[in-house]
């Protein structure tokens, strides 16, 4: 036992190179099973060739490009729809004025009737829809109640009158309809 201790001490001092090698092997013996498993794995799967690495990189880059292209198209559509919605939103006051003039009969027989029809057709081309009519069920998501009046004639909140129509572009709310609402009378 003293002899082993002397060999280890001599190896540490660099006097006996063979003893130093055996001492080094004893220090790293716990890593040997891991190295052996790694070597077995490389032998079983074979070394990864440069061509296989390049092919994997190419496939990854192709997938990234397809995802990038889809994301750019989606973002472009979102930006386009937002721009259309803003243009249509800026036209809403003019459409309101024309609707009020039409309701008063000021447009009948005048050239402005054709202008109103063209403006509405242009809005519809881009998905502009008007909503809010007397008798509709009140929906706080799309209606803004300006006045609430109790009524014995209704059992649920109902639109009594439309002050300003509401507008949608597709499923996107541009403006809530401003309405007067009949609410069920307590009784």
Topology overview:
Blueprint: H1 2-13, H2 17-27, H3 32-45, H4 50-103, H5 112-125, E1 128-131, E2 143-151, E3 158-164, E4 166-169, E5 172-175, E6 177-184
Parallel strand pairs: 2-6
Antiparallel strand pairs: 1-4, 3-6, 4-5
Helix pairs in contact: 1-2, 4-5
Summarize the structure.
The chain is an alpha+beta fold and 187 residues long.
Describe this structure in words.
The protein has 187 residues and is α+β, with helices and mostly antiparallel strands. It folds into 2 domains: 2-76, no CATH class; 128-187, Roll (Nucleotide Exchange Factor Grpe, Chain A, domain 2), CATH 2.30.22. Helices cover 56% and strands 19% of the residues. It contains 5 helices and 6 strands. The strands form 2 sheets. A 3-stranded antiparallel beta sheet has the order 1-4-5. A 3-stranded mixed beta sheet has the order 2-6-3, with no helix packed on it. It starts with a helix and ends with a strand.
The mean pLDDT is 82
Radius of gyration: 40 Å
Instruction: Describe the oligomeric state of these chains in a short phrase.
Output: single chain
Sheet with most strands: strand arrangement: 1-4-5
What fraction, in percent, of the residue positions are helical? 55-70%
Main sheet characteristics: 3 strands, antiparallel
Which residues form runs of ≥5 with pLDDT under 50? 19-30
The H/E string reads HHHHHEEEEEE
Query: How many angstroms separate the termini?
Result: 106 Å
Gross morphology:
elongated
Q: What's the total number of strands?
A: 6
